[in-house]
Amino acid sequence: MVAVDKVNLTPVSKLDDAFDRASELKAFDDTKAGVKGLVDAGVVEIPRIFYRPPKIDDSSSVETHLGVPVVDLEDVDKDPLKRREIVDKIREASETWGFFQAVNHGVPATLQEEVINGVRRFYELDSEVKKQYYTRDTTAPFVYNCNFDLFSAPAANWRDTFFTLMAPVSPRPQDLPEVCRDILVNYSKEIAKLGELIFELLSEALGLKSTHLLDLDCNEGLALICHYYPPCPQPELTIGATEHSDNTFITVLLQDHIGGLQVLQHNKWVDIPPVPGALVVNVGSLLQLVTNDRFVSSEHRVLANSEGHPRVSVASFFSTGPLPTSKRYRPIEELLSEENRAKYREITVQEYNLYYAEKGLDGTSTLPHFRL
Fold first, then answer.
1. Quick check: is 262 in a domain?
2. CATH no. for residue 209?
3. Domain Fe2OG dioxygenase, which positions (predicted)?
4. Closest among 342, 366, 256 to 294, alpha carbons compared
C-alpha cells in the first residue's frame, strides 16, 4: 500500500501556480505502485497529473442510436456463401467504422474468462511483489507500468498496464509472472490463430488473394497489452484512455463486463458494450497506411471507471512494435491507380512505433506525420 502523504501529489481541488508537473510525475512513477496504489491508499481526490483538460466539443458527444457491427464467424471455413457474406460485412465495417465485434470466433469463453482472471490476479498481487516488474524499458520481456507515455502525454490516464511481446519470439516462462504465465501463453496461441483468419478475411475484403496481408507479415508480431482500470473517485475529471488509434495492423480486444470503451463515429462517441463471448476487432493505423485509407483506423477511448470494481481488458496487438526489423511498409500496389495514388511514404513498423510513443496519447492522429 502506498501512503498518500508519501506520494504527495497535488489534488485537483488545490490547483495553483506552484504545481510542478514534472516533479509530480516523477514522484508518482517512483512509487512503482501505479493508479492501483493510489486507490489502495484511499485517495478521494485525483492528483492533478491525471486531470484532463475539457475539450470544447467533448460534451456533444455520445450517440446512443448507433451500434458497432457484429460479425458472426460461424462456418466461415466451411460454407463459401457464408464466407462471402462475412467478407462483405467486414469490408463495410472496416471502411466505415474501423471496428466490429466478432462472435463464434473459436476462442473458448472459458479461456477468455481465465485470461481476464489471470490479469486481475497480477494486479492484485502485493505491491512489493509487482514492483520487481515495474519498468520504463520497452525492450524488457515483461513491461509493467502506469501509462507508457506518462512523461510525454498532456495528461495521465487512470489505468495501469502490462505488456509482453509473444511473437515473433516468445518470452521465457521465467520472465512472466507465475500468477498469469500459463494463461498468457495459451491465450496468445488461440489469438494468433484467430488473427490469421481475420487477416485472410481482410485481404479478401480488399479484393486480394486471401494470403496477401499474411504474405506481408502483418501477423508476424503479437503483443498482449493488459489494462487494469481501478475505480476512480472523480471519473468526470480524468479518462481511462485518451482518444487514439492503435499503432497496429489490427487489434483484437477482450473486455470484461464493465464497459467504458467508445469509438468516434460521425463526430459522436459510440459505446462498444461488452457482449458475452465476443471479441472487439479494430483496424490499426498500420493497416490504414497499407490500404491507403481504404480501411479506417478510428479514434477510440475508454472512460474512467465509475463502477465499484476494477475494469480489466486484454488487447492483442498484431505488430512487431519497437523491435528493430528491416521490413518496410507502404500502400499496397494493387490498390493504387492514377486516381488513387499513394498517400503515405514507406516506413518501418519500428519507425512508426517510436514516433507514436514519443508523441504519446494527445488526442491527435499519428498518421498525418507519415503522409506524402
1. yes
2. 2.60.120.330
3. 220-321
4. 342
Residue 91 grid coordinates: 469490408
Can you tell me which residue has the cell 492483442?
A: 316
Is the peptide bond preceding residue 47 cis, with omega within 30 degrees of 0?
no
Number of H helices, E strands in the chain: 10, 15
Asked if the structure places residue 15 within a domain, the reply is no
Strands (E), the chain: 62-63, 70-72, 99-103, 143-145, 160-167, 222-229, 241-244, 250-255, 261-265, 268-271, 279-283, 300-302, 311-318, 328-329, 347-348
| Domain span including residue 361 | 58-370
Instruction: Confirm if 61 and 268 have CB atoms less than 8 A apart.
Output: yes
Q: Which residue type sits at 133?
A: Y
pLDDT at 8: 55
Structural domain count, the chain: 1
Characterize 237-246 residue by residue with b for buried, 16 or more Cβ atoms within 10 angstroms of its Cβ, and e for exposed. Answer: bbbbbbbbbb
Give the model confidence (pLDDT) of 204-254 as tens digits.
999 999 999 999 999 999 999 999 999 999 999 999 999 999 999 999 999
Nearest to 304 by CA among 215, 361, 231: 231
In this prediction, residue 324 has a pLDDT band, given cuts at 50, 70 and 90, of confident
Q: What angle do CA 163, 169, 171 make, to 5 degrees?
A: 50
> What average pLDDT does the chain have?
92
Q: pTM value?
A: 0.93
pLDDT-based confidence at residue 196 (cuts at 50, 70, 90): very high
Q: Is residue 8 part of a domain?
A: no
Q: Which residue has the higher pLDDT, 10 or 113?
A: 113
Between CA 33 and CA 28 the distance in angstroms is 8
Banded pLDDT at 2 (limits 50, 70, 90): very low
**CB distance 254 to 279 below 8 Å:** yes
- Give the pLDDT confidence score for residue 1 in this predicted structure: 35
In 3D, which of 212, 246, 205 has the Cα closest to residue 92?
Answer: 205
For residue 60, pLDDT over 60 is answered with no
- Identify whether 53 is part of a domain: no
